[in-house]
Amino acid sequence: MNIFKLARANVRILEPYQSARRIGGGAKGSIWLNANEYPQPTFYMLRGCNLNRYPDCQPQEMINRYAVYAGVQPNQVLACRGADEGIELMIRAFCEPGQDAILFCPPTYGMYSVSAETFGVECRTVPALDNWQLDLPEIYTRLDGVKVVYICSPNNPTGNIINISDIRKLLEMTDGRTLLVADEAYIDFCPAASLASWLMDYPHLVILRTLSKAFALAGLRCGFTLANADVIQLLLKVIAPYPLSLPVVDIAEQALSIEGIRQTSQRITEINSNRDLLVEELAQCPCVRVVFPSVSNYLLVRFDPAYHVFQTLWDQGMILRDQSKQIGLSDCLRITIGTRLECQSLVAALKALTLSPST
């Protein structure tokens, strides 16, 4: 029996998202700068959990704490399994398979397309401008039939903030016809650019957040969707009955305590400092062509292809993220900001690279 033939046609041809863990790094990987994780573990002690009982669908204390942190009301918060589940929930709740479309602006995060294609929803793309800002006139021409527009700010993998004035124009453009989802997975590194305070003014605005980045809890798989109450109620219809386990809720509540947020603030300061230092050092490496500005915990760097940076460093156990297949990102690698020592080791390895005699 050919099980493959029983699968849905769109799933048979689906190209899965190549996460950092799927790509791997070989047994000798020692410096992992490919997944935008915090480089060192956080330490939280599990408190008593009655694991014989199911958790609440939306644990109130955790919701309340994140609402305070984000500056919104509790009824504007939905807890989910990372921002990735928030991406999927929007499609499940609002898009008719084979009829509606989503729209996004590459180069950007790859899960928007994978989630849509999984559910048989059309993907439309409007490439970003050369400065990686929105092409608003072109977006406008492609909105017919689009139910959800995704924008990522800070954008992954480019690291830039989308112009606030352009986002406001896009919100006005989509009012009454399309939901606008702002993926703010990295906003903790640049909180002044958050759109959370705009929710009451724009009923079709939705914001995705996560504890994976600045909170250093990528392994927890805990995120939040911020939206007005009517959107939240629709998402609650399609979310799993128990999306977060009790241990996840326990650790998330600790991370969102006063002390947990203080530690997160310290991590942000550390990462921003290491990023600024790494920018300076990379500029001195002969193999580097461009270091693009970033407000997040990663840098996008264009390298001279003659140095074969990605594979050479991979073989040395330094794992970066190749972005060269994305539109406009030829010869580009994304580098997660690691510890100060990891950054220094990376720079030393790059400076040691030489061109082969045949180049």
Automatic annotation (TrEMBL):
Modification type N6-(pyridoxal phosphate)lysine: residues: K213
**Which InterPro entries does the UniProt entry name for this protein?**
Aminotrans_II_pyridoxalP_BS, Aminotransferase_I/II_large, HisP_aminotrans, PyrdxlP-dep_Trfase, PyrdxlP-dep_Trfase_major, PyrdxlP-dep_Trfase_small
GO annotation (BP), single: L-histidine biosynthetic process
| Database matches in SUPFAM superfamilies | PLP-dependent transferases
Cite the EC number. Answer: 2.6.1.9
Q: Which PROSITE patterns match?
A: AA_TRANSFER_CLASS_2 (PS00599)
Give start-end of the signal peptide: none
Which pathway does the database say it acts in? Answer: Amino-acid biosynthesis; L-histidine biosynthesis; L-histidine from 5-phospho-alpha-D-ribose 1-diphosphate: step 7/9
Q: Does the keyword Protease apply?
A: no
Q: What is this protein called?
A: Histidinol-phosphate aminotransferase
Q: Which organism is it from?
A: Candidatus Palibaumannia cicadellinicola
